[in-house]
Each structure stands twice: as C-alpha cells, then as structure tokens.
Amino acid sequence: MNPLETLLQEMILESGPISVERYMALALGHPVYGYYRTQAAVGAEGDFITAPEISQMFGELIGLWAVEVWRLMGAPKEVKLVELGPGRGTLMADALRAVKVAPDFRDAIEVHLVEISLPLREKQRAALEGQGIRIVWHASLDEIPPGPAIFIANEFFDALPVRHYVHRDGGWRERQIGVDENGRLFFGVSGAHESAIAAKGEPEDILEVGVGAARLMTQLGVRVVTQGGAVLAIDYGYSEPARGETLQAMRAHKFVDPLESPGEADLTAHVNFSALARAARGAGAAVHGPVTQGDFLARLGIFERASALERAAAPAQRAAINSALERLAGEGEGFDRATDMARLFKVLAVTRREFDPPPGFAEGAPNEG
Fold it and tell me: Keyword Secreted: yes or no (predicted)?
C-alpha cells in the first residue's frame, strides 16, 4: 500500500465514500503523491506514448497550423502560443522548429506551458533550450496573462476527472469509491438518486460526465471570444453521446486496475467531444469539427511531409517513417488505441464566430457556431 492509498483510506473512513471525480483529481494531482507531481509519464520510459513522440511530423504540422491561424487572426504583433499539458516538450520543440519558415510569427509569439508535473517541466526545459523565444511555465490556465492566444491541447482533456452515474432502482446513483472489509478501495454507488439527471436508462447503465472538461472548455471559449485566438483540442474520444464508462489506468504501457496503487498509474477517460462543442458554443464561440485525426493530418499535408522525409532518409529510416505515418493518419486493418490513432483520436477547433474555418477543417468539417 502506497502513501496516497493510505491517505485515501483514512479520508474515506473518516468522511465517507468519495466520487470518481474526487478520486481521479487526487490520484493525478495530489500536491505530494499525485501522478503528475511525481511521474515522468510520457515516452518509452514512462507509461504511455503520445503522437508527438511517434514522429516529428505531428508537432511540425501543429506549428504550421498555428502560423496559419495567427494569419487568420490578422497577424497580431503579440500572441501567446499556449500548450496545455506539454508532455516532454516534444510537440512544442518540433512546432517551433517548423515555424522558422515564418520569422514574423516567431517574432510575435511568447510560449506558455501549463504543466503541474515537476519531472516533466525539467524535460520540457531540456527539449526547448536554446529556442530564442521566451517560455513561461504555469500551474493552471488562470495564470496565463491576457491577450490573443492560440491554445494547443493534445491528450489533455482525457486526464480531467469525470463523474460516473449508475442507473439502479429506477434512477441514477453516483458511483463512489469506498473501503471494503479488507481495507481495500472498491467501487460502489450512492444510496440516493440524482434528481437532476433526467436521462432515461436501463438497469446498470453508466453515464460518464466530464464536468471538468466542459468547465475548462467554457473558460477557453470565453477567452477566445473576448480576447481573440483559437483552441485546438486533440484527444481520443467519441463524437456522439454514449453510455458506459471509459475510465482506464496505464502503467508501463499496460492497462492496470484504476484503484490499484493510486498516484502510480495514469488515469484517463475518453473525451466526449459533443460535450466540449456544447460548452464552447455556450460560451459564444464557433466550433469546427470534430474530425478524425487522420483526416485532420491528411488535410495539413502529413502524407506529403512523410514523402519529403523519406526522400532524405536512409533506407533503414524509411520503414520507421511509414510506420509512424500509419499510426498517426493511416487506415489499416484492426482498431485499437496503440495502432489506430487516426480514427480513434478526434480533433476540434474553437474560434470566434466570424473566424474562417482553420486549416484541417475546411473540407467536410462544418462550422457549428
């Protein structure tokens, strides 16, 4: 039993069961024992791999996307390029290298990174050293100074805590975490129905509600509407509302029990993109997409970029480029998160209503604003 599990047990025994949302918040963000406070998380030596770690092409295209969005904004003399949850800094490093082709954009940007993990901050500093651009770290979105900003959130919303409700005895009861007779954490349900949930359900149906994700998207939408800029959200998830839970834990690239050794595994849930879109529209913003990651990257030119890299690569490197391209944007057989990010991952952009569709969304990706 690790220190955080002991702390959670004491909390539950003293004050009663806690929600799934509260458990995720503590397991990931406890100031001393939380996962993102203590673990390196991303990369081959961590617990999971993200798209920027698969190929430089991903970050390069995101950087060029930001340049075009900045131009659609009217090329303001000062703009903040903000990444939420920047991992090891790989995406931003690749993006900043790519935007050297747009020196006017580089002169205008100031980079802001929202990161609570101290180990990851050190990796980000190493990755971004010598860029010649001011880089500022923050613990939360609230700390970002005012002004036009382009926000990049790649695999960020999936880590925000969710609530679970189980349909039982004719109504919805919140799923909670308690302590069993053996002193172990377990899933149970509240004794009271949630009268505020009007949705119908079948016995044992589960509703997964991303309250934190919707709240953050509302905040981002308000900021874009009032101060200018755009949001680009890329994550694994679904476009239409669905029943069932998607809470999962990963350690050393393997799925583990979410209640086992809290603070030592990455906890995530699939992102409800329809809920993100509703939140952004409710803030007065325009919504573009969501589209699949494969379609988005194809429209940005990933296949052309891969061909260029292949022409300059040694024969042994060409297979790696093709493999990365297939994982990021291909449409191969089968369907799982490790090998089929192209379809499972979705991409959504948020802008002001008068904004033209940003790159990657103009074809078949209607503006829902």
Answer: no
